[in-house]
């Protein structure tokens, strides 16, 4: 990996210099990455550690509904569940955020109030990212003005895959600027790559660095609308990128795998990987999230099993 220039403008001042930097990153050994991810996924943990892991995973969930059929009632119910995932157990942690479309931000915000659960809004022509920049920025500003604490933007994958890296960089910078609020509490920016469309792990590493150079607070695998979505090898490469970025700049960036993570067993595999690759600093909802709509109930069922010794029925928890 080449040394990061002291002045980031040295890297991003032109298409040519940005391309040289991104293509100068060390290549990813796909077979090696897949083997390491598989190896980390076989780690076993003790029962006490599993209980802690389940609670940690719950606290990292971005509880998500992104359907055309979303209604204020559904979002209100989801936000209520985010604050009290298990109504029968007050010791159960709340989730990190509720993720909705921009027009539902105000509804989610009104329900969540001062609970500490964030409201995340997808923006920038989610999930395709195919829109003019002024439309993407208006979409972002609308969500921020409605009270969104976090913005999940999607990159222009067509621009990235055709080598127009500076175009992608400039859009991320512009969207981050649109996250600025008059009250001084800027919305955090999560940048979605849609890794299932990026073809290679080398591209995943390049786009991770590109987004971080542009000021992303989080890098995120997927929209959940394209398969494959989150995978362990892809997340491994992204975790290595944020680790290396911190070593080069001193800045931490979060990681959010999203889409296809449905079981507690899978969630724990990701937590083991975080601990092994980036270290315990990232084992915190401020730096690692799960984007999921069905994972939470599975985590709650496993948590109840550890507490009571028996599985709850499938109708014990509300459906999301």
UniProtKB/TrEMBL annotation:
Q: Which top-level enzyme class is recorded in the Swiss-Prot or TrEMBL entry? A: lyase
Pathway(s): Carbohydrate degradation; 2-deoxy-D-ribose 1-phosphate degradation; D-glyceraldehyde 3-phosphate and acetaldehyde from 2-deoxy-alpha-D-ribose 1-phosphate: step 2/2
**EC number from the UniProt entry:** 4.1.2.4
Alphabetical keyword list: Lyase, Schiff base
Tell me what organism the protein belongs to.
Nocardioides plantarum
Q: Which InterPro entries match?
A: Aldolase_TIM, DeoC, DeoC/FbaB/LacD_aldolase
What protein is this chain from? Deoxyribose-phosphate aldolase
Q: Which GO terms describe its molecular function?
A: deoxyribose-phosphate aldolase activity
Q: Which reaction does it catalyse?
A: 2-deoxy-D-ribose 5-phosphate = D-glyceraldehyde 3-phosphate + acetaldehyde
Per the record, the similarity remark reads:
Belongs to the DeoC/FbaB aldolase family. DeoC type 2 subfamily.
Q: Which NCBIfam families match?
A: deoC
- One Pfam family in the UniProt entry: DeoC
């Amino acid at each position: 990996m080449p040394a990061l220039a002291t002045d980031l403008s040295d890297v991003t001042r032109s298409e040519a210099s940005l391309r040289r930097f991104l293509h100068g990153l060390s290549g990813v050994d796909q077979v090696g990455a897949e083997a390491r991810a598989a190896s980390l996924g076989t780690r076993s943990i003790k029962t006490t550690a599993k209980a802690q892991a389940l609670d940690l995973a719950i606290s990292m969930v971005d509880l998500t509904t992104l359907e055309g059929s979303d209604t204020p009632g559904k979002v209100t119910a989801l936000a209520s569940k985010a604050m009290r995932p298990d109504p029968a157990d007050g010791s159960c942690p709340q989730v990190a955020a509720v993720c909705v479309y921009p027009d539902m931000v105000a509804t989610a915000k009104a329900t969540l109030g001062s609970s500490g659960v964030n409201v995340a809004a997808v923006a920038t022509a989610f999930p395709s990212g195919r829109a003019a920049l002024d439309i993407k920025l208006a979409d972002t500003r609308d969500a921020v003005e409605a009270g969104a604490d976090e913005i999940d933007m999607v990159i222009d994958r067509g621009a990235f895959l055709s080598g127009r890296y500076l175009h992608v960089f400039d859009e991320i910078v512009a969207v981050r600027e649109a996250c600025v609020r008059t009250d001084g509490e800027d919305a955090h920016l999560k940048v979605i790559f849609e890794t299932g469309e990026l073809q290679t792990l080398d591209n995943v590493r390049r786009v991770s660095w590109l987004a971080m150079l542009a000021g992303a607070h989080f890098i995120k695998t997927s929209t959940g609308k394209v398969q494959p979505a989150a995978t362990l090898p892809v997340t491994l490469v992204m975790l290595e990128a944020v680790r290396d970025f911190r070593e080069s700049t001193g800045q931490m960036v979060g990681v959010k795998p999203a889409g296809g993570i449905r079981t507690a067993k899978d969630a724990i595999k990701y937590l083991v990987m975080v601990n092994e690759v980036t270290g315990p600093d990232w084992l915190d909802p401020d730096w690692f999230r799960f984007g999921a709509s069905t994972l939470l109930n599975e985590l709650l069922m496993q948590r109840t099993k550890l507490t009571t010794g028996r599985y709850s029925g499938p109708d014990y928890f509300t459906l999301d």
